[in-house]
């Protein structure tokens, strides 16, 4: 038994059931977090100078660019700028994932994610970093394709 703040005794079973209850309401941990260079979400063939290095997260359902600033659209000269869109790839939409060396991409290790909506190109800082992204995305996709995403979610939350 354990003592709570109000000096009541509780059992380990109670604590475990309470943790499980709350765990179902919390977001799952990420399988991979790191930086990739990406084009603007609304212009995948933008010139290199418009590509930005930003953080990406991979969980059991999607690869998503992280919004570094949670700020609202900025007002400039009485005009409201359009809110920035971010890249998001649903695992269910992935057809294939591969490296790519293409002169149209900025310098670095190229990543091509072919989806049902068309290709998504990203660039890792190094080939070693790219290998980590490829392995993680392929793992998540393979588990998804076998219909075992819920099993992966259970393993991740432990």
From TrEMBL:
Classification via Gene3D superfamilies: Pleckstrin-homology domain (PH domain)/Phosphotyrosine-binding domain (PTB)
Protein name in UniProt: PH domain-containing protein
Source organism of this protein record: Aegilops tauschii subsp. strangulata (Goatgrass)
């Amino acid at each position: 038994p354990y003592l709570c703040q109000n000096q009541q005794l509780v059992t380990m079973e109670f604590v475990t059931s309470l943790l499980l209850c709350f765990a179902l309401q919390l977001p799952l941990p990420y399988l991979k977090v790191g930086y990739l260079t990406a084009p603007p979400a609304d212009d995948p063939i933008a010139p290199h100078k418009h590509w930005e290095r930003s953080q990406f997260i991979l969980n059991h359902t999607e690869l998503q660019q992280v919004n570094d600033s949670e700020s609202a659209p900025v007002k400039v000269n009485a005009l409201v700028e359009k809110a920035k869109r971010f890249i998001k790839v649903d695992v269910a939409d992935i057809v294939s994932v591969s490296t790519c060396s293409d002169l149209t991409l900025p310098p670095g290790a190229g990543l091509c994610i072919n989806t049902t909506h068309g290709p998504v190109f990203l660039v890792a800082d190094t080939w070693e970093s790219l290998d980590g992204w490829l392995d993680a995305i392929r793992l998540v996709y393979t588990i998804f394709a076998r219909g075992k995403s819920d099993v992966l979610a259970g393993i991740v939350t432990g």
